[in-house]
Write the structure tokens for this entry.
Amino acid sequence: MIVVIRIAGMVNMNRPMEETLYRLRLRRKYSCIVVSESKEVMGMLKKVRNLVSYEKIDENTLKELINKRGQSENKKAKINTEGVIKYFHENKTLDGSGIKPFFRLHPPRGGINTKYHFPKGVLGENKEINKLILRML
């Protein structure tokens, strides 16, 4: 499972990058998706690596993300975290699991550096994405 967080906004973005972000369902700044690792997804992430932060997510962070920021498709329904994770492992997608396939996050507490890639900033393949997500919840 790979988690992708959109870091950059919409200003001065060229059309192919904008379309790729829309296909990934990253339509707003600080929105997040969880996708399965495939050749097609990795190609899209390589294309928009200057605008997003991505890496594999661990189970504890995923449970925390679903508990705190998961939104039910039916407004009154409760979210079953274990059921959603099991559904994702079986079907490789969150569509039809009962929650919206994206998560709206808070800007990171403590700030971030958006100029550089991972060792100095947060863009691209970020090895510390789990810490970043916990700061954004």
Summary: The longest helix spans residues 59-69. The chain has one domain: 2-136. The CA atoms of residues 46 and 64 lie 27 Å apart.
